[in-house]
Specification:
The chain has two helices and 35 strands. By secondary structure, the chain is mainly beta. It has two domains: 346 residues, Beta-galactosidase, Chain A, domain 5 (Distorted Sandwich); 104 residues, Immunoglobulin-like (Sandwich).
Amino acid sequence: MKIHHIVRSVLAVAALACFAPTAAQAAEAKESNYRGWKTLELNNGLIEVQVAPDIGGRIIQFKLGDFEYLWVNDQLAGKMPPPTGLGPKGEWLNWGGDKLWPAPQGWGSDDKWPGPPGPVIEGIPHTASIVAAKGTTASIQHTSPQDKSTGIQFSRTIHVADGAARVSLVSTMKNIGTKPRRWGIWEVTQLSCADRKGPGYDKDVWAYCPINPKSIYPKGFKVMFGAEDNPAFKPDPEKKMMKVHYERQVGKIGMDSMAGWLAVVSGRDGRVFVERFQCFPDKKYPDDASVEFWLQAPGKFFAAGKENVITDDPKEAPPYMEAEVLSPFAELQPGDSYLFSNTWSAANIGGNFPVLDCTPFGVTCEKFTATMAGDKLSLGGRFGVFREGKIGLIFLDAKAKRIGETKPTVTVTPAKPLVLSPDSSLTAESKVPADAAEVALSIATKDVEFVGILARAPISK
């Protein structure tokens, strides 16, 4: 049996750096319960992940503190799937949360998946187990039944480590049949757009994803379902950023983004969800897209050979957005497996701010600036950070050579935004080298062990 490892060393090193141990609560995996379902829970004191094996092995909830990011179907909460995995009329049971599907989606062809529903893959119980119960990293694994219609079986290992608001996911797709198969792994994450303080929807939910400068699409994206002029989809050609605003009009777009990240901001609560994933510009993708966004809302769209109508009934059009990440196609001989890795992160950004940039260590929401005012350095910017630790400065010369630094002293946490101002304590004792042309925000653990760079900025004089 051959395994295709789709893992880049740079991402692996970055992930390990982010998971460097701190004095935070030990990561833990345990049996739990969420909204009436038996679950396996991952928790490290910052984030909580609830995996529900009985309803298709999905991640049914992801939390930063008490803030729940994922949409859950209230009509199905706590219920168990029938043996068929389908509703009374053979319909899809949309439980919510996050799951894996095969891509591409389509109808009338054996090389396309006509779901949902896909009852074997995501509608009936998965097997699941705790791989690592407690320590610097805790892990859970779940595996789907074998799906003879697609010839594949999914499994996924989910890791949470100390001190980081980050989840590492490694998904495996195995050809369990007797003939070659060609599928991509399609991860579908349903993010709540509900008004958390009353009925209706949150009008301040925005998604951000960089547009590929070499996109095959003239606008950097394509409309897959719904109206071409859907006002929810707002490309910014100048900043090369796709912005998706949740509005009550159904629609879906696909993007060939190669930046390797997307972010969804719940602006009223000042929370951001970030997914980072691997990109392979030289490989073929299902739908010619690495990222897709679906808006569950009223309206019309054409699919499965017919026009489909979603009414404004909250049960039919609950407010959620799907952030969907796709792997390249995998050419699988019988017995072959394909691995695809990605991460989720979360942070408090303090309000309804855009995401301008993203690193493995956090997001930039207001531009990082550095200005010399006499012999003092003035900093500006707003960030959400993905781990507990401390922030310091690193100074670089015109050739990007490191020529100085400050000891990390400013405490940061995913639970609070990092906002820099001219009188920031970060610069109180900083001595700027005469040849410094650039400054970087460095993140260290609580024990002042270097983790990585959050952002960089030229020094204006």
